[in-house]
From TrEMBL:
The chain crosses the membrane at residues 189-212, 275-293, 305-329, 341-358. The keyword Transport does not apply. This is HupE/UreJ family protein. Keywords: Membrane, Transmembrane, Transmembrane helix. The lineage of its organism: Bacteria, Bacillati, Cyanobacteriota, Cyanophyceae, Nostocales.
Length: 364
């Protein structure tokens, strides 16, 4: 019987190590940006213009030189095909059921906050025109790769003095600008926050590393509180543009926080002052969380709702991660090989963190 249980737990250990290796080979920043699009939608009387930055792979038929970005010449050459394709994927309809006639052109400038890699994304201007003044508008956005549930389009809608921030997903493809309730806008950013931390494997491994040394419920509460307060501070400061650091520096620093905490698990025995370390390193992670929100234009009227909702989503995801990790790690206490297991996982996390640091700092 004992032999069967040992085989069972050995299988789990091997699975976890394999999972960590797989995560390590995935660049977390790519997980956030690869399927992300950003739209700035200016609504006018008879004309609405969308400045859209999207993965070039969605219109690969127009990328003749395969450089990952449509040049003005390629856009002009393939204009009829692009207008037909994008017109089917993104439609704007007024209250009378009239769809705007689409005309595309190369964008003269990137949206002010854009940070997405220009080698993977293209920016175009999509102009929708009507013969009569538009009194209401419904946007249907379906520019997603098939079977990619993580794809998102972060949209800022500017209409007269009103600004809305919306998140289009494969599950939520349509918004009506005349009756989009506040709770729906908030829920979109809550979900975005949850997904951001759950698919941000660097943040996940950081939290798991903090719990790898064990500790009771009191320790867990200190860690969660310290991380919540610190990342909320820098998330807000970064989104408000009070603090701004190069993305490469922030992402490299996040990788080093993972390396340090996991390495500390290998030699340190006590948990004293770990909450303070969590607070300090959480400041760095907050700057990383802010990256995706800085892709949208947040005016004063829309800033509070989007920022608070996104942060709530991050907290929900964080609680989910630490709860599962805490329960599983506590189950190991009754086994004699618990310490060996914790050190094995911590060692794997150190290696992954170093690999990510090399990727981010030197572009390897």
């Amino acid at each position: 019987m004992k032999f069967k249980w040992r085989r069972y737990w050995l299988s789990i250990v091997l699975f976890l190590v394999s999972l960590l290796v797989s995560i390590g080979l995935t660049t977390p920043t790519l997980a956030h940006w690869a399927d992300l699009s950003v739209a700035e939608i200016m609504v006018g009387d008879r004309k609405t213009v969308i400045t859209l930055t999207f993965p070039t792979g969605l219109v690969a038929f127009s990328d003749d030189n395969r450089d990952g970005q449509l040049s003005p010449e390629e856009t002009t050459k393939h204009k009829p095909e692009l207008e037909q394709f994008l017109g089917e994927k993104i439609s704007l309809t007024d209250n009378n059921g009239q769809k705007g006639k689409l005309s595309i052109s190369p964008s003269q400038s990137l949206p002010p906050n854009i940070q997405i890699n220009s080698n993977t994304h293209t920016t175009l201007e999509l102009a929708y025109n009507w013969l009569q003044p538009v009194t209401g508008l419904t946007i249907n956005y379906d520019l997603f790769l098939p079977n990619v549930s993580t794809a998102r389009c972060l949209a800022t809608v500017i209409q007269e003095a009103k600004t809305q921030n919306l998140v289009f997903t494969p599950e939520k493809r349509e918004f009506s600008l005349i009756d989009t309730p506040v709770w729906q806008q908030a829920s979109s950013f809550i979900v975005l926050g949850i997904e951001h931390i759950l698919t941000g494997y660097d943040h996940v491994l950081f939290l798991i590393s903090l719990l790898m040394m064990g500790g009771g419920l009191g320790y867990l509460l200190k860690i969660v509180t310290a991380f919540t307060v610190s990342h909320s501070v820098t998330l807000s400061l970064a989104v408000l543009n009070i603090v701004s650091l190069p993305v490469r520096f922030v992402e490299s620093a996040i990788a080093l926080t993972i390396v340090y905490v996991a390495a500390e698990n290998l030699w340190r025995k006590g948990l004293r002052w770990r909450w303070l370390l969590t607070f300090i390193f959480g400041l760095v992670h907050g700057l990383g969380f802010a990256g995706i929100l800085k892709e949208v234009t947040l005016t004063k009227s829309a800033l509070g709702l989007s920022l608070i909702s996104f942060n709530i989503g991050v907290e929900i995801g964080q609680i989910l991660i630490v709860s599962i990790a805490f329960i599983l790690l506590n189950q190991l206490r009754k086994y004699s090989w618990e310490l060996t297991f914790r050190r094995l996982i911590s060692g794997c996390i150190v290696a992954i963190g170093l690999f990510w640091f090399a990727q981010r700092a030197w572009g390897l």
